[in-house]
């Protein structure tokens, strides 16, 4: 790997690391958030406030018992290579998202689902990138860059 490739790889590593640090350090049940605990800490030591209108709308689209199980905010890992998302958390967050989006279990969570979530529940979701650095920088040789 030449000097320019090393520099580019380091930038990619740093950017992905930075993006992936702005995620929740904690989550709360939907019920707790609806009861007033809307501010949560992020891994980068900042705070995030979930929107009450979004919490109410999301909650109203779910069976009431799910409020006690589903935790928010929900972190999604987006793979730009495949265009798919996976839920980071329990199966209940994924079930809740699928229920709200009207998706069957076998349907993939894709970019269209992400667009709907961002438009309606931007304060309730966090997105990280699920990528292999070698796919971005083109092969081996990125070891020892950091």
Structural class: alpha+beta
Give the low-pLDDT segments.
Answer: none
Order of helices and strands: HEHEEHEEEHHEH
For the biggest sheet, the summary is: 3 strands, mixed
Q: Explain this structure to me?
A:
With 146 residues, this protein is of the alpha+beta class. The chain has one domain. It is 41% helix and 18% strand. It has six helices and seven strands, in the order H-E-H-E-E-H-E-E-E-H-H-E-H. The protein has helices at 3-21, 30-34, 52-60, 91-101, 111-121, 133-137; strands at residues 28-29, 39-41, 47-49, 71-72, 74-79, 84-88, 125-129. The strands form three sheets. A three-stranded mixed sheet has the order 6-5-7. A hairpin with a 5-residue loop joins strand 2 and strand 3 (47-49). The protein is globular and about 55 Å long.
Write the topology of this structure.
Layout (H helix, E strand, L loop, with lengths): L2 H19 L6 E2 H5 L4 E3 L5 E3 L2 H9 L10 E2 L1 E6 L4 E5 L2 H11 L9 H11 L3 E5 L3 H5 L9
Parallel strand pairs: 5-7
Antiparallel strand pairs: 1-4, 2-3, 5-6
């Amino acid at each position: 790997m030449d000097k320019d490739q090393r520099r580019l790889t380091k930038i990619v590593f740093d950017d992905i690391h930075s993006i992936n640090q702005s995620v929740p350090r904690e989550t709360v049940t939907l019920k707790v958030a609806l009861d007033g605990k809307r501010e949560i800490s992020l891994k980068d030591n900042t705070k995030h406030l979930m929107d009450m209108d979004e919490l109410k709308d999301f909650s109203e689209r779910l069976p009431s018992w799910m409020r006690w199980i589903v935790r928010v905010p929900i972190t999604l890992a987006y793979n730009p290579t495949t265009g798919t998302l996976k839920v980071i958390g329990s199966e209940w967050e994924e079930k809740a998202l699928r229920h709200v989006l009207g998706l069957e279990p076998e349907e993939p969570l894709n970019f269209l689902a992400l667009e709907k979530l961002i438009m309606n529940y931007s304060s309730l979701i966090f997105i990280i990138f699920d990528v292999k650095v070698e796919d971005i920088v083109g092969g081996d040789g990125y070891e020892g860059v950091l």
